């Protein structure tokens, strides 16, 4: 049987993800399982323009591809049962892994993890927000800085059985104003690796060609210019930034 055409073959809805803030459906295109977010189901936001979250999700995938780090699962725009929307290949995660976690403060591992912040649970015990200290998660943190991700929750990091981590839910990205809110703050002040710098260089080169052309179809000119400026700024600094501005540094809820 030939592989389905993910853009033109029929998209059939099979379920709905009721915990999502915008209308989000499970579906299938042939034997491919997908997530479908119709533009018509996007809720208005006070700080992002209406009707553009799907385009930002696709722009995030495009940037992920140029970085070469396979952070975002394949994502594209197409028509569906509820109109045009974002479609993304579904990923089966490993339920035994938790790249981002909340643990009692006394259970924070001594190695292999970064502690981001502490808080109190509902009975007053001190708990710590932690995440893995791994190259794949570092690359996701770089990606979030570049795309100005305003919503990197813990559950937006998908743990794959082989150790890879995907990032999903990138509708709140590419704002021209500083909006970075993430749970991946564990490397503040650490120098970027050669691999991370090379990824930023690929993006900067791409902005002069095909990447720039693709983003121009998905974002405003001001947003593309702000994205380019963030890439230059991070490349010049050569290290992970600290939180800045008046906005909260982490999303809420954290998961």
Topology of helices and strands:
Elements: E1 12-16, E2 25-29, E3 32-38, H1 53-67, E4 75-78, E5 85-89, E6 100-104, E7 113-120, E8 126-132, H2 135-147, E9 157-159, E10 165-167, H3 194-206, H4 210-216, H5 221-237
Antiparallel strand pairs: 1-2, 2-3, 3-5, 4-5, 6-8, 7-8, 9-10
Helix pairs in contact: 3-5
How would you concisely characterize the structure shown here?
The protein is an alpha+beta fold. The protein has helices spanning 53-67, 135-147, 194-206, 210-216, 221-237; strands spanning 12-16, 25-29, 32-38, 75-78, 85-89, 100-104, 113-120, 126-132, 157-159, 165-167.
What does this structure look like?
The chain is α+β, with helices and mostly antiparallel strands. The protein folds into two domains: 12-95 and 134-237, no CATH class; 100-130, no CATH class. Helices cover 25% and strands 20% of the residues. It has helices at 53-67, 135-147, 194-206, 210-216, 221-237, and strands at 12-16, 25-29, 32-38, 75-78, 85-89, 100-104, 113-120, 126-132, 157-159, 165-167. The strands form three sheets. Strands 1-2-3-5-4 form a five-stranded antiparallel beta sheet, with helices on one face. It has a three-stranded antiparallel beta sheet with strand order 6-8-7, with no helix packed on it. It is globular, with a radius of gyration of 18 Å. It starts with 11 loop residues before the first strand and ends in an 18-residue tail after the last helix.
